[in-house]
TrEMBL record:
Alphabetical list of InterPro entries matching this protein: ABC_transporter_permease (IPR051393), MetI-like (IPR000515), MetI-like_sf (IPR035906)
Residue ranges constituting the ABC transmembrane type-1 domain according to the UniProt record: 90-298
Compartments it resides in: Cell membrane
Alphabetically ordered keywords of this record: Cell membrane, Membrane, Sugar transport, Transmembrane, Transmembrane helix, Transport
Gene3D superfamilies documented for this protein: MetI-like
Family, similarity comment: Belongs to the binding-protein-dependent transport system permease family.
Transmembrane feature ranges: 31-57, 96-115, 127-149, 169-194, 215-234, 277-299
Name assigned to this protein: Multiple sugar transport system permease protein
Principal localisation: membrane
The organism of origin for this protein: Streptomyces pseudovenezuelae
């Protein structure tokens, strides 16, 4: 029996065979833009265009009903020189960030360390501790929180010194504790970072006589510093934008005595209650610049305390 060899197909003269790897670069880029187009369109319509409009409105007098009237830098000069409540909102927000962010990260790290050392039930407790991060941002939970710290609530009944909501010195702490309670997201990130630390480091330290506290300071903290930095940046940005807890606890007024008047709550008051949307837009852009500056400072400072094992230095 003889076999007849079938010649392999050849490309037409003057035309190279086209395969996915050999497609023209322009064609591949065109396909990429087709798949990216929904995201690009959404980003432009929902983010870039509104930001551009708000930047324009920040230089206008606009009350949501009449056409905007150009006034230049008057909103900014009024904000910095003629509005004492604006500066009160700035101070309140800074106090909130200083209280809420360190407490939340410390609690998240403690719980992550406890979960790492657990032998069983880790998945259940991880889910249980993460649940507040999903629920805490809702208005319903914030209203429940208000009742917990109100006069006659559980805190009042337990401590017997009245509710915190109506005390200027304690109301902001009640708002901050709601953020601290939502420690699930940074906890999960901390737990993932802890699981990446080699066990050999702890074993070698134990052989050298290092105790648990020394191991924590000399091994856990340096090896976990990139994760700590990541959580610090995210939680700081979120803390500067806090709104729902302060709105619910104070009934949207920022009381008592403006003790819970955080920046975004005052922005809401100026824009949607007083109908000074141009002024509110100027406040929003100042907040954006401040968050950008704070983030840049954090990144700059990270060079001296964040340790990357691949680089072998700080």
């Amino acid at each position: 029996m003889t076999t007849t060899e079938i010649p392999a197909p050849t490309a037409r003269p003057g035309r190279a065979a086209t395969t996915p790897k050999h497609r023209p670069k322009r064609e591949r880029e065109g396909a990429a833009w087709v798949f990216l187009s929904p995201w690009v369109l959404g980003a432009c319509l929902l983010t870039v265009v509104p930001m551009a409009v708000s930047l324009y409105l920040s230089f206008t007098d606009y009350n949501l009903f009449d056409p905007p009237h150009w006034i230049g830098l008057r909103n900014y000069t009024q904000m910095f020189t003629e509005d004492p409540r604006y500066w009160r909102s700035v101070v309140t927000t800074l106090e909130y960030v200083v209280i809420a962010v360190p407490l939340q990260l410390a609690l998240a790290l403690v719980v992550a360390l406890a979960l790492k050392s657990m032998k069983g039930g880790k998945a259940f407790y991880r889910s249980a501790f993460y649940a507040p991060s999903l629920l805490g941002a809702s208005m319903s939970i914030a209203l429940v929180w208000r009742q917990v710290f109100n006069d006659g609530g559980p805190v009042d009944n337990a401590l017997g010194n009245g509710g915190w909501i109506n005390k200027p010195g304690w109301s902001l702490l009640a708002v901050a504790l709601l953020t601290v309670w939502q420690f699930g997201a940074p906890m999960v990130i901390f737990l993932a970072g802890l699981q990446q630390i080699p066990a050999e480091l702890y074993e070698a330290a134990a052989v050298d006589g290092a105790g648990k506290w020394r191991q924590f300071l000399s091994i856990t903290v340096p090896m976990l510093s990139p994760v700590l930095f990541f959580n610090l940046v995210l939680q700081t940005i979120q803390a500067f934008q806090v709104f729902t807890p302060a709105f619910a606890v104070s009934g949207g007024k920022g009381g008592p005595a403006d003790s819970t008047l955080v920046y975004t709550l005052y922005l809401y008051d100026r824009g949607f209650v007083a109908s000074h949307m141009g002024y509110a837009s100027a406040m929003a852009w100042v907040l954006l610049l401040v968050i950008g500056a704070v983030t840049a400072v954090l990144f700059r400072s990270s060079r001296s305390w964040v340790f990357y094992a691949s680089e072998g230095d700080r």
